[in-house]
Q: What sequence folds into this?
């Protein structure tokens, strides 16, 4: 079986981090975002097809240097074709039932169960669905039993047809390709509404689900993983520091500071005396000076917070 990962978006909401790293390769604890998806695939998936475009060279380098135990095929779009266009662009690789993912989803979804749901229900595709208290910012799905009967994009307050949103993980039959026109096409807006009568089903699941597209949701995904047993500390100097878990600390240098909860500090990162860091990511070589407060921040590789600074909700990259 093949799994297709849509990994060609520009990740504009995570700038400036995505000026130097494509979103699928941004680190979530111990590995790049996209590897969380690949490592969760059922054994029956032997080939991963990545639909790439933005910064494709870095993605090629990553998969050349890291064996992920499956055949990996990268298919480039000269210009991003949208989520639907990207699927059509890899059609030569899709000849049977396939899994399809937005490349920035972190979830507890049981993919084997999703596949067996799809096989039981038949139809052209199955969409995983996640329940949210306020669906205003999402693609909303209307259901009759397990059958999808309607779609609504980003409904105005009080007008949502349900509280179930498209969770960005799908199972499709190759016939879906017959319904994607050439060019730039949105799967959600232009293809799904057209194939309703071909049998689209909705698979609801529980646990956790985060789309890591924004700084806030990136940090939420990190917190979910830490709360679900992915915390770790290794090769980290912590002299005189107070550590409040869960955190992921790997090769960091912490000195006389307070760290956590929900901090990821990667190799070469450092926090100096008298500083407090909570719910943040310190990527390789990022540094926090003395007497700082850092909350809800993403510090890219080599980014720094100067002595005495307080930062909250910021995305910082290294100054060039
Ligand atoms: P923003 O610019 O911040 O909206 O991020 P994005 O470009 O990643 O868009 P979005 O979060 O809506 O995309 C959801 C998923 O689809 C991500 O995994 C993207 O990489 C992927 N994606 C979006 N547009 C394209 C595209 O044109 N081509 C390909 N191959 N993938 C895409």
A:
């Amino acid at each position: 079986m093949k799994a297709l990962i849509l990994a060609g978006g520009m990740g504009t909401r995570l700038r400036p981090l995505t000026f130097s790293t494509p979103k699928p390769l941004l680190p979530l604890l111990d590995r790049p975002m996209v590897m969380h998806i690949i490592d969760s695939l059922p054994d029956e998936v032997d080939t991963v097809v990545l639909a790439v475009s933005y910064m494709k060279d870095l993605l090629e380098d990553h998969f050349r240097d890291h064996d992920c135990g499956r055949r990996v095929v990268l298919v480039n779009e000269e210009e991003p074709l949208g989520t639907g266009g990207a699927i059509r662009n890899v059609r030569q690789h899709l000849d049977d039932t396939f899994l399809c993912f937005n490349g920035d989803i972190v979830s507890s979804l049981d993919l084997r169960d999703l596949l067996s749901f799809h096989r039981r229900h038949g139809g052209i595709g199955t969409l995983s669905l996640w329940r949210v208290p306020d669906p205003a910012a999402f693609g909303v799905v209307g259901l009759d039993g397990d059958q999808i009967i309607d779609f609504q994009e980003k409904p105005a307050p009080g007008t949502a047809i349900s509280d179930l949103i498209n969770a960005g993980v799908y199972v499709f039959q190759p016939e879906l390709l017959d319904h994607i026109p050439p060019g730039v096409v949105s799967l959600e807006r232009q293809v799904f509404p057209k194939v309703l009568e071909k049998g689209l089903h909705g698979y609801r699941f529980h646990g956790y689900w985060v789309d890591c597209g924004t700084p806030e949701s990136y940090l939420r995904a990190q917190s979910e993983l830490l709360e679900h047993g992915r915390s770790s500390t290794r090769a980290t100097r912590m002299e005189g520091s107070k550590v409040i878990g869960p955190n992921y600390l790997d090769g960091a240098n912490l000195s006389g500071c307070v760290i956590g909860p929900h901090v990821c500090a990667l190799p070469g990162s450092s926090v100096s005396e008298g500083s407090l860091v909570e719910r943040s990511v310190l990527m390789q070589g990022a540094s926090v000076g003395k007497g700082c407060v850092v909350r809800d921040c993403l510090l890219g590789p080599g980014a720094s917070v100067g002595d005495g600074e307080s930062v909250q909700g910021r995305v910082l990259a290294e100054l060039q």
About this structure: The longest helix spans residues 215-230. The two ends are 44 Å apart (CA to CA). The chain has two domains: 2-211, 231-316. The domain at 2-211 is CATH 3.90.550.10 (Spore Coat Polysaccharide Biosynthesis Protein SpsA; Chain A).
